[in-house]
Amino acid sequence: MNAVKEQQDILAKLAQLISDNADSGYSTATCVFDFEEDLDGSYAIGEQFAYVVEGREVSTYLVDPDREVSLLVPKLHKLMKEHTGGSWSEMTLTLASDGQLKTEFKYPDAS
To answer: CA within 20 to 30 Å of 104's CA: 7, 29, 65, 93, which one?
Structure first.
């Protein structure tokens, strides 16, 4: 499997997890994943999850019983870093009720 396809598959799995955690009838669901990697190769992942239903924002925890986030986020980070050389520190995924997924990545300052 090529790197771009593998990245798309990971994003689709994360989108499904987001959708599964939002109440039915949501208009958008957003999860912000923070990724911090240490020099020794260890990493920390944080997340903030919210969705909008009937015009009201609901902030809650992302329920992840299979711990997919702890596997998928570092894998996506590694693939993207190998593919582009960039090392993002934050990824925002916004899922619309029609299934469209928007991604946004923040990269630490290079200074």
So the answer is: 65
Phi, psi (deg, nearest 5) at residue 71: -100, -45
CB 77 within 8 A of CB 103: no
Strands across the sheet with 101-106, in order? Answer: 56-60, 43-53, 26-37, 90-96, 101-106
Q: pLDDT tens digit string along 68-83? A: 999 999 999 999 999 8
Q: Radius of gyration (Cα) for the chain, nearest Å?
A: 14
pTM beyond 0.70: the answer is yes
Query: What is the distance between the alpha carbons of residues 77 and 108, in angstroms, rounded to a whole number?
Result: 14
